[in-house]
């Protein structure tokens, strides 16, 4: 047997990819303390904290409008399951945190969806979980967005198209209301 065959099986690591955006990031440089170059390991028994207090938070946002501790992420395993999850908890008394439009007040927490958008103030963070098997730690990989993650899009309203292909908006613009007729009526 070769040493390759005897080597232990390499385990995959859960990785949380986080893409950060703020409209003033060019001029205020609030992300200057974040490491966008490489993945960072976070031990499973640690909480990854985000905020402006560098003595408490692992990930520092250099902005006086950010709470000393804005939010935390905790890696855990679900009870009676082999599934590993990340839990997000709002630690700001002043600012609500939204995760895919679910609002979290102070000390509220929830499981982080595998892909979601986290917002507080003018901050937007796209979070994507890449699943792994490691029980000792997870990794974070931070990215910087050039453009807003959330954009207001004006989508045309999705109105049903009738079988005859004539849109009801034509009738409404003429002040007429379409009526349904039974095909068996004379």
TrEMBL record:
<dbReference type="InterPro" id="IPR033621">
    <property type="entry name" value="TIFA"/>
</dbReference>
<dbReference type="InterPro" id="IPR000253">
    <property type="entry name" value="FHA_dom"/>
</dbReference>
<keyword id="KW-0399">Innate immunity</keyword>
<comment type="similarity">
    <text>Belongs to the TIFA family.</text>
</comment>
<dbReference type="GO" id="GO:0043123">
    <property type="term" value="P:positive regulation of canonical NF-kappaB signal transduction"/>
</dbReference>
<dbReference type="Pfam" id="PF00498">
    <property type="entry name" value="FHA"/>
</dbReference>
<dbReference type="GO" id="GO:0045087">
    <property type="term" value="P:innate immune response"/>
</dbReference>
<feature type="domain" description="FHA">
    <location>
        <begin position="49"/>
        <end position="121"/>
    </location>
</feature>
<keyword id="KW-0391">Immunity</keyword>
<keyword id="KW-0963">Cytoplasm</keyword>
<dbReference type="GO" id="GO:0005737">
    <property type="term" value="C:cytoplasm"/>
</dbReference>
<protein>
    <recommendedName>
        <fullName>TRAF-interacting protein with FHA domain-containing protein A</fullName>
    </recommendedName>
</protein>
<dbReference type="InterPro" id="IPR008984">
    <property type="entry name" value="SMAD_FHA_dom_sf"/>
</dbReference>
């Amino acid at each position: 047997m070769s040493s390759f065959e005897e080597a232990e099986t390499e385990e995959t690591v859960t990785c949380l990819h986080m893409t950060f955006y703020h409209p003033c990031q060019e001029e205020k440089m609030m992300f200057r303390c974040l490491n966008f170059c490489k993945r960072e390991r976070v031990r499973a028994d640690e909480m990854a904290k985000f905020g402006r207090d560098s003595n408490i938070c692992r990930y520092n946002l250099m902005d006086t409008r950010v709470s000393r501790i804005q939010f935390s992420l905790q890696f855990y395993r679900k009870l009676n399951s082999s599934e590993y999850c990340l839990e997000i908890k709002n630690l700001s008394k002043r600012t609500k945190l939204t995760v895919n439009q679910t609002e979290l007040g102070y000390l509220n927490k929830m499981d982080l969806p595998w892909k979601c958008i986290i917002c507080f103030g003018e901050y937007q963070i796209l979070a994507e979980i890449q699943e792994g098997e490691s029980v000792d730690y997870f990794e974070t990989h931070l990215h910087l967005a050039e453009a807003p993650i959330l954009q207001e899009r004006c989508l045309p309203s999705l109105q049903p198209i009738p079988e005859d292909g004539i849109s009801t908006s034509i009738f409404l613009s003429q002040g007429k209301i379409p009526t349904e007729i039974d095909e068996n009526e004379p």
